[in-house]
Backbone:
């Protein structure tokens, strides 16, 4: 594990030699944290990223022995589409994680039938607020533009999304050029940081460069991932490997 130039929250960057090693190590890291939470507190609560990178990790995680009935998963963000849509992150979890033994875990969706993405965000915000406890684990991805969850660079929603004093856990994200192309629901920074640990899962040389650029700067509106990397409240571990 290489220690990054000291950003307080980042405990380290695990550079895996292959995508297979990345998948195994990330899944085992998640499973260990879930198991510890269940051992210590009787339950585990996690918020999971969507996108392509984590899917093989979720598939591997689903094969690991855990008291899955004591685990609850939600999402770090969601597209404003029903689960049957190919864009849906809930659909991603359904086909990758909620298979085999992991089907016993509970799922708290962000999307729900609503006339507007704002109404869906309000409902999701209330659902997560009702949990009344921190996440044991938040798993994030990162886009090539430095976005994370659905907090995208230079979007007006970042004012609310990155506000450290906000009591909101979920906000609505409107489509913007160049991204996101569809309305979304996203955890806010305070919701992401209300966790015992954060894992960032990234692959490929391009994203490693993006990470280094993010670490070298401070403007979180330019690269929202910086808000996670530069905070000192929640420990962050990064798993990286070359592309598959
Ligand atoms: C989403 C994710 C998003 C993702 C990044 C990276 O809903 O798309 O939550 O934040 O983590 O876009 O996506 P890839 O893993 O597909 O590169």
Residues:
């Amino acid at each position: 594990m290489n220690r990054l130039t000291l950003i307080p929250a980042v405990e380290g960057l695990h550079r895996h030699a292959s995508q297979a090693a990345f998948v195994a190590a990330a899944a085992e890291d998640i499973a260990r944290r879930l198991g510890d939470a269940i051992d210590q507190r009787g339950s585990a609560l996690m918020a999971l990223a969507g996108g392509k990178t984590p899917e093989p990790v979720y598939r591997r995680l689903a094969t690991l022995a855990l008291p899955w009935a004591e685990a609850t998963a939600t999402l770090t963000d969601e597209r404003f589409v029903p689960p049957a849509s190919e864009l849906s992150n809930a659909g991603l979890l359904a086909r990758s994680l909620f298979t085999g033994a992991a089907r016993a875990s509970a799922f708290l969706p962000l999307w729900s039938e609503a006339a507007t993405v704002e109404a869906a965000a309000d409902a999701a915000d209330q659902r997560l607020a009702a949990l009344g406890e921190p996440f044991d684990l938040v798993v994030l991805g990162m886009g090539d533009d430095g976005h994370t969850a659905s907090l995208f660079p230079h979007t007006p929603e970042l004012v609310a999304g990155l506000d450290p004093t906000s009591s909101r856990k979920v906000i609505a994200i409107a489509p913007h050029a160049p991204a996101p192309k569809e309305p979304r629901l996203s955890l806010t920074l305070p919701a992401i940081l209300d966790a015992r640990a954060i894992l960032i899962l990234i692959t490929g040389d391009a994203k490693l460069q993006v990470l280094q650029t993010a670490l070298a700067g401070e403007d979180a509106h330019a690269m929202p991932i910086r808000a996670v990397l530069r905070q000192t409240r929640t420990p962050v571990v990064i798993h990286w490997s070359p592309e598959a």
